[in-house]
Amino acid sequence: RTKVKVSRIWKNGTNLTKADKIKLDDARNWIKKTKFVHKYITDPTANEIISIHRILKNRINLDFSIYDYIKDDNSRTTSEAYLKLGQITNVLKNSISGAMSIPVLSAVQLNKDMDIADSDRIARLCSSVITWKPKTAEQRRMDSSKCGEYALTVRINRNGDFMDEDDYIDIHFDKKTMRICEAEDHHENREQPFGK
Which of 40, 71, 80, 126 is the most buried (most CB within 10 A)? Predict the structure, then answer.
């Protein structure tokens, strides 16, 4: 929103220009006027997740939830973690998104094979799986520099279409301002590398 470099913000504001300060103040005021709520709860139970969402739905008419992120830190066995991660996914999809009509966006860790780590129940129970990852050397070679450095792929979508494994949406991630957006240009299925 502000496009102010993160490195300027992190240094106690000592590197901020007057224009940067105005942009940040405008952003703070915008945040105060919206329905943003942050709850930090480690390892919540399914009932806690449901209760928090129910309270916020009643108090502020919560209309979108970002759950950061589906994980399990306390299970003693792999099978216990597998079940718990599936349970959290089920609660987010059915109890929150379905029963309360609150769309939910969440993240999960990927394993070294770029698949969902720890529980395939997450993929089986959620509505959509979208991967966001750096483009491969081959993708970068085939795309123009305006196509962004990241590839977003809809791998599972129970509400509509999904993409082929080799197709993707071009994404630009500006690390300096932490801004993520669709790339300025889009790749095409080319037989030759870009520019040849």
Answer: 126
